């Protein structure tokens, strides 16, 4: 189980507050903040949460992501995952990141500094430098859909990706049917389906594991932006 789940958790699945808390999604706040909080399901089994908060000031965004997964079979713990990331973005590009991850007892970290128009990223495997506009697997950021490479905030790897527009259709979330835009992101070892409202507010995520189980991010309470798109 560790093998396939490890390949998916960097979604934070960051990625991402205990799993028993009341969970909701909110749209833009009066203070320029925006947040997404999802309950994470493995098939029909709740395994934790993924939380993202974005604070915006002029051309700068500060992002805080937390995730916590706890997989049990017959009440026996078989997998755990904790991840926390802080990011700073300027002009829609990443300029600083600090993350820590406990992947079932295996620890990772990512730190960075901007040097000479490059983003230098330090991980447990050393230091790498990336030029141009670097973005992470930040599903709240619709510019991600135009990216050819994305930074994995758990490992620090800069991964090639492709994104396809799958069109508009109805998305079932609990008892609601939402008219949503569907995109499919393909990386080297996984495929992720993403849904957004007509105004491109992130709604949901789904991916199939190597074992055939389905990993889903579902909001317990839909944002007003989402409810406005009901058919």
Structure description:
The strands form 2 sheets. The protein has a 13-stranded antiparallel β-sheet with strand order 8-7-6-5-4-3-2-1-15-14-13-12-11, covered by helices on one side. Strands 9-10 form a two-stranded antiparallel sheet. The longest helix has 8 residues, at 2-9. The chain has a domain at 2-160. A hairpin with a 2-residue loop joins β11 and β12. The protein is built from 2 helices and 15 strands. With 231 residues, the protein is mainly beta. It is globular, with a radius of gyration of 17 Å.
Distance between the termini: 39 Å
Tell me about the largest β-sheet.
13 strands, antiparallel
**What count of helical segments does DSSP give?**
2
Low-confidence stretches: 1-26, 223-228
- Give average pLDDT, whole number: 82
N-to-C SSE string, H for helix and E for strand: HEEEEEEEEEEEEEEEH
Principal-axes geometry comes out as: globular
Strand order of the largest sheet: 8-7-6-5-4-3-2-1-15-14-13-12-11
> Could you tell me the radius of gyration in angstroms?
17 Å
Q: Say how many strands there are.
A: 15
Percent helix, as a range, is under 10%
Structural class comes to: mainly beta
Strand content: over 45%
């Amino acid at each position: 189980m560790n093998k396939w789940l490890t390949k998916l958790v960097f979604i934070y699945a960051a990625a991402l507050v205990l799993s028993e808390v009341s969970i909701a999604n909110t749209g833009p706040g009066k203070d320029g903040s925006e947040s997404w909080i999802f309950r994470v399901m493995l098939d029909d089994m709740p395994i934790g949460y993924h939380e993202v908060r974005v604070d915006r000031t002029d051309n700068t965004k500060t992002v805080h992501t937390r995730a916590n997964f706890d997989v049990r079979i017959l009440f026996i713990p078989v997998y755990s995952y904790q991840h926390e990331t802080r990011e700073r973005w300027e002009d829609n590009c990443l300029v600083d990141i600090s993350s820590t991850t406990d992947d079932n007892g295996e620890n990772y970290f990512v730190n960075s500094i901007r040097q000479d128009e490059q983003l230098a990223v330090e991980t447990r495997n050393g230091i790498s430098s990336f030029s141009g506009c670097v973005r992470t697997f930040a599903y709240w950021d619709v510019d991600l859909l135009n990216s050819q490479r994305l930074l994995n905030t758990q490992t620090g790897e800069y991964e090639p990706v492709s994104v396809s527009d799958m069109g508009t259709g109805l998305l079932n979330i609990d008892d609601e049917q939402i008219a949503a835009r569907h995109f499919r992101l393909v990386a080297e070892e996984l495929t992720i389906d993403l849904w957004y409202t007509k105004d491109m507010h992130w709604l949901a995520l789904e991916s199939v594991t190597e074992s055939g189980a389905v990993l889903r991010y579902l909001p317990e309470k839909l944002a007003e932006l989402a409810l406005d798109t009901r058919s």
